[in-house]
Model the fold of this input.
Amino acid sequence: MSLSEFSLKGKKALVIGARRNMGKGFALGLAEAGADVAVTDINMESGQLMSVSEEIKAMGRDSLCLKTDISSNDDVEKTVNHVMQEFGRIDILMNVAVMYHMKSVVDLDEESWETLSNVNLKGYWLTIQHVAPIMKEQRSGSIINLTSRGGLKAHADKMMGNYAIVKSGIAMMTRQYARFLGPHNIRVNAIAPSLVEWEEFPGLENQNVNEAEVQEERESTEQEKFEAWSNGPENIPLGRVATFNEMANAAVFLASDASSYVNGTILNVDGGYMA
Done:
């Protein structure tokens, strides 16, 4: 074994949904390992995505900052073409975009379902469809999807039920693409976190929800419920939530040559939750 196999020096990465939280952590982690990183998000107005790109450049890496609606085939195509024009290749694709809904699975309406699945499922499929041909021509590549403990186990929690359905789809999507792209020396894997720290409550933009309800849910979920779950040994044996850095370490491993024989794997980075 050589530690140099974990290096991403000279690699070109595209991280979808890199504005904050895990997406930001993954993008910075790949850059720290040596990769040039293009970051995308649907929200550019806050300036957060540009800040991530500037942090990457401060490490001495190249970076692109692109607005992308991953539910739009045209948007994804334009983004991938832009990255290819600037970088010349794509070695790593990370799908990290996340959308939650405040409604339970039995209360979810059609419009909400379409929004949820367009981001969490269709969007991942579109990015792979556009990047896979590039990686085929290169005869190499690593695709990493973000699934969840919610995609591997049914949940009674209000938000996790509908989220679990689409995340389970991503888990199977990962395995199917691993089958079909493996012969082209393209590895497709997924990371399944349990509870992870965050800067902001994720994935609630553009939803028609009552702000007071959202705030109440934030307070109970972020502070009381999540801490109770993380501290309960029957839930997470390590007794805490994961850090962004711990999640990024898993991504660097899957993106690097250190995992050259890892394909079609759902890597649980969950503190023992699924044990």
